[in-house]
Amino acid sequence: MKITGIKGFSDVFPEEVESWQLAEAEARRILSVYNFAEIRIPILEKTELFSRSIGETTDIVEKEMYTFGDRDDNDALLTLRPEGTAGVVRAYVESEMYKFEPVRKLYYMGPMFRRERPQKGRLRQFHQIGAEALGRGDPFIDAEILLLLHDYLEALQLTEPSLQLNSLGCADCRPAYRARLLEFLRQRAAGLCDNCRRRIERNPLRALDCKEPGCIAATADAPSIIDGLCAACREHFDVVQRLLRETGVAYSLNPRMVRGLDYYCRTTFEWTSTRLGSQSAVAAGGRYDGLVEALGGPAIPGVGFALGVERLVLLLRALEPREATGPGLFIAWVGVNGRDWAFPLAHRLRQKGLSVELEGEARSLKSQMRRADKLKARSVLMVGDDELQKGKVILRNMANKQQEEISLANVETALLAKKVD
Ligand code: HAM
User: Fold this and answer.
1) 83 C-alpha to center of ligand 1: Å?
2) pTM score, two decimals?
3) 354, 420 Cβ separation under 8 angstroms
4) 313 close to 363: Cβ distance less than 8 angstroms
5) Which pLDDT tens digit goes with each residue over 258-300?
6) What is the tens place of the pLDDT at every residue in 235-258?
7) What is the percent of the chain where pLDDT is above 90?
8) What is the phi/psi pair of residue 174, to 5°?
9) Domains in the chain, start-ordered, CATH in brackets?
10) For ligand 1, atom 18: residue with the closest CA
11) Index of the ligand 1 atom closest to the CA of residue 282
12) Which of 48, 302, 326, 352 has its CA 20 to 30 A from that of 65?
């Protein structure tokens, strides 16, 4: 019987990989321009890391994590990381990076795991490119991160996604807002879904983010968090907005944007696209000033983002479907002498960086030409006993079908000079 993959865990085939590589290469370029350095963190962490940072009452921690006991220590619960921020902050605290230099700009790329219901743009294993700026509480770094994302999307010619911005306040002003919202929600409890009603006491802000039509209607005139910001949070948020205006980055305010993770304070944001269906967020993030301390470090602020690579690739491929490219050169040989000449030549050309393909078993020239075509080879070098005797091989350009003879003596230099790749 065939063994199939796991629901929500997908393979990425070569036709698509090119877009992935483009997204990753461009991200590395932009992140290094903004002076972020790569960090590689484990995929598996202690469960407590996520429950303490993302929050016990979030969907992720309540029902979406892949959690299991360690094989020989069943008290130690482990979880496949559902996101990268917690792991980066854990590594920062554990290695005491801050002692040498508290300001660290770190980025990561890799798979994340959430047991959500799979649909377009939503997988159970998905990939993020994320960045975290630790040690800076000023609004300039919030703006820098938003500009980085703006530059990145623009470099990939993805100009359609739009930026939504909110401020969630801080430990000084959020409790008062939370109390006001809770009071409001208690009065509207009858209109809320079971899930929201169950958790309004513990996490009232989540009700603003609920997609149930009843909850959207019941909370339409809920108090706005932006109106309840303290002076320091307001000043911080005003500067972020001023910097965006001055640099020409369009945004809109969305005071209902709560985000699905509890560690946020002050600036939060989402970049959404109308071309992705209901899973519209391409990139999202915000500030998390209490997280380093919550994970056992000193009071050091942080801000960051993560973008979903699958969603980005959907947008890139809609823009310009990319085809997997074939080898630069296919060597079609006929006869044992042709083969014994072609095999070492292919090796020498590959050593020089040309991508070359050739058959291992004897085939007719016609069938080799068909194969070269199927592989999308850009040119074909043909060699058999006749060519070897005459001292000339034939090079065919597969795009314009033109053929030329190349002398055996300088075939290698001629092919390299032509850059058949
Ligand atoms: P998040 O909003 O949970 O934030 O995820 C960020 C992005 O990951 C989303 O906008 C989306 O593009 C992608 N994503 C999330 N879940 C899935 C899924 N099931 N399938 C496909 N793509 C998905 C975070 O993870 C935070 N750690 C971001 C952050 C970094 N905040 C501060 N620093």
Assistant:
1) 7
2) 0.91
3) yes
4) no
5) 888 999 999 999 999 999 988 899 999 999 999 999 999 999 9
6) 999 999 999 999 999 999 999 998
7) 86
8) -65, -40
9) 14-173+229-319 (3.30.930.10), 329-418 (3.40.50.800)
10) 122
11) 12
12) 302
